[in-house]
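Entry for flavin-adenine dinucleotide complex. Fields follow.
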Amino acid sequence: MDGNDDAITAERNAPAAAIDAGAVDAALAAMMTGICGADNVITDPQQLRTYECDGLTAHRSVPGLVVLPQTAEQVASIVRECAARQIPFVARGSGTGLSGGALPRTDGVLIVMSKMRSVIAIDPISRRAIVEPGVTNLSVSKAAESHGLFYAPDPSSQVVCSVGGNVAENSGGAHCLKHGFTVHHVTGLQVVTPDGELTWLGDGTGVAAGYDLVGAFTGSEGTLGIVTKIIVKLTPIPEAVITLLAAFTSMGAGGAAVSAIIGSGILPGAIEMMDALAIEAAEAAVHCRYPEGAGAVLIVELDGPAGDVEAQTAAVREICTAEGAYEIRAAQDAAERAAIWTGRKSAFAAVGRISPAYIVQDGVVPRTALESVLDRISALSAETGIRVANVFHAGDGNLHPLVLFDDRRPGEQEAAEKLSGMILDLCIEHGGSITGEHGVGVDKSRYMPRMFGADDLDTMQLLRCAFDPGGICNPGKVFPTPRLCGEVPGVRRAPHPLVAAGVIDQF
Amino acid sequence: MAATTIPVELAAACKDVVAAGDADDVAGVRAGYVAAPASTAEAAALLAAAARLGLAVVARGSGSRLHWGNPPARCDLVVDTRRLDRVLEHAAGDLVVQVQAGVALDDLAAVLATAGQRLALDPPAGAANGAGTVGGVIATNSAGPLRFRFGAPRDLLIGITVVRPDGVVARSGGKVVKNVAGYDLGKLFAGSYGTLGLITEAIFRLHPRPAVSTWLSLDRPDPESAAAVVHAISASPLWPSAVELDWPSAGAPLGVSVLLEGDEASVTARSARMRDLLRRGTAGLPSGQRKRPDGSPVHPTSAVEGVDSGVVPGDREVADGGAAGGPFPLARPPADGRGRPEANGTCVRVAFWVGQLATVLRTIRTAGVANGVDAAIGGSAGAGILDVWVAAEVDPAAVGGFASELRAGLAALSAGGAVPSVASAVIAWAPPQVRETVDVWGPVPSLRLMRSVKDQFDPAHRMAPGRFAGGI
Ligand SMILES: Cc1cc2nc3c(=O)[nH]c(=O)nc-3n(C[C@H](O)[C@H](O)[C@H](O)COP(=O)(O)OP(=O)(O)OC[C@H]3O[C@@H](n4cnc5c(N)ncnc54)[C@H](O)[C@@H]3O)c2cc1C
């Protein structure tokens, strides 16, 4: 993975020369007011502060200026002004991101999409919706419901998070095991490029000619441009859904059940797992009344044609029992299902009940490595005396260890961060990933070189250079070191004819 | 290029380099040398040498799709992937496989089948050399009927290793299905026709191999009623794996087929319900005969009068046990049209919003009538993609006129103005005489960005130059 020529690589990765950036000043604010109207430009320091961080509060930075455009054309005008002055800009959806992706720049403009939140059109026969980027994830499904359709990607934050943010992060959800991630459900994007051009990537068919820029853009964490419209696929609502809750005495037994279910050829909509500490927190917060004494609970949701769901439910019950489940509950209707999911969905926040502070980690391991990685995590926890609660998407090996600490006690935060980083190392060591759904953002860019070589990162940034050669679109995210885009890197064109002919020397 | 001696640099970089012969022509373009690296490292050394020599490079898998797109403007070096033929790791418990780019899809399928798994892509039926290679299927992002449920290669690809035109090796993604670390280069390389670099390895997510597969088919007399059937199937909660349409000529009925897969009990139950749904769903539509020649009543989902030679629904429903390329009485066209007489002819690929299906079908026929072209139409109607085949004998000018008129007709369709277009047509392949009359790629949105991507990855424009959209 590593470069064959370190010197060249280092030179290529040298930080971009200081650009002669314009100032975020009253003149710029006036310009933005001209575009969006005074009500949609924020300059008041107190109000600016409300945008200083996203869902990851550890990173904070007060934006130089906040604008709230209402149309795609306004976004394009804003970006053109920024580009003309080389002023960095950052898009923000609902600010629920957990990797600091929407962290603003003090010397830049924060473009908040919350006033562009309509579902523009639904074409039920084509099974497509055209939406604005600020619309919440759940409202797309709500708008489609009367047509018997829903929008499949369902991050736990779906009541609040925006579809634009989902596109930027390629968000998943509990049900992406079966239904796929955001990238599998987006077929067209209207974007404003970093130089201010309003253009379409893809046409909604999902089979557009040319490079798959829709696929390449999705998951680029706001670094390639700003999404102003999104065409998403809608999926027929499954005929039947059954949710099972199975309690095990140990995580090992629960993990074995997960492997057995997948091994049997069943593909559930979701398989989620929680350990004893996560259950304790959930009980304290929402009284979800999970079976007493559980060392692990498994939530398995089956969806599909009624007959299939029935047969698969029976099979999953059998597997869980064989792997030692001592209690299994089944939910058939929405209320019963909600009762089972409450504990799981509240888990992150619930941990606040049992610890003054905590870090939400997001890493992935091959599912077959789950057991050994969980063992290693509990060993690390025992060694360091730092508690770790585990809540995770077990079906696809996506771990969300919650590392608990007391921020009032000196040194604890640092120790917790260290442990959290060691968990990522475990994921990499087992052939996994440093993030399954929360993204790299500012938070994990320093871990990227542990997962990818310098050449890998350099090559990814070729895409960045194609879209944003000036490096003004959400700079400082994803990649630890920006790439210079100006010169053409590492390419030696055919030798000059005179060199080739031996008339002149290369050096 | 008439090369007889192999440049020392190439020979030093790769053990297997020979001068190209007649059989190595790429879409009629004479090649200089053919090199077959056996590892990513060897491929990297080869491409670095080619970069120093300024050679134009075309990647070749089984060669079954080299005629797709435009011919390259130059082809100094063919990089043959046949020696990149290893399945590196099949992690059955994780439903993931890592393969080299030259592995034939057939061979891969055989390996995966031993664990009861599959890569949910249809190997193009009838293709020579083991149904195409992994690298080729990614580079063309081509998919068959299973596209309806599983998508195209880009949807199943979770990791990729490429060699850049300058010889640098780069990876993105990884061995886990859920992974959002860094940009996804796999998406960019899928469907890039070898214009950005050489794909040497891929990692795919796998699916369990279904125990039973059943196709149900019925004929409809006109585009509207066929489209109604397609929509009813697609919207059903019965979890179809494929929704295909086949309309061999303007005078023939339209065959709609649905693929159901799963274990036996599930497929039996869903087939019964699907037949029920079709019976109800199509009851009010113009239908063909409801009686057999002997006067006995026929299942209402049966064929159209005068066309169906006594075939009853039961005959049209075949359980093929999941065998690849199993019997399919409706003669569903293979995914890339090979094996059809039109393989030497022209294939126009039409993508559209599914709700426009009937209109798109009519638009194709209208353009056909105007130009005297009676095309065969077939493909994944439920997923909004159809191939239109025109026989080799048809006058090239007529084919060009047909394609242009079709494009104009599709461009005029609209979904209320919120999006710029809802249908488009690309010529997947065509004889040279046809290519002279019409641009195979047609108008492509966001071409400026695509050119910019090309300039970054391949600044000297040496990778399959001119083969791709917009002259890329
Ligand atoms: C309690 C909780 C649960 C969560 N559960 C999940 C989960 O299950 N699965 C999951 O994947 N994530 C989850 N998340 C993370 C988060 O909700 C997702 O990443 C979400 O997609 C972010 O959307 P947002 O609108 O809040 O984006 P923001 O946080 O505002 O921004 C996120 C990134 O998107 C960019 N961005 C926003 N809008 C645009 C746009 N229009 N154009 C270009 N770039 C844009 C920003 O610049 C930033 O880089 C959870 C978060 C919380 C707080």
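NOTE: Chain A has a mean pLDDT of 91.
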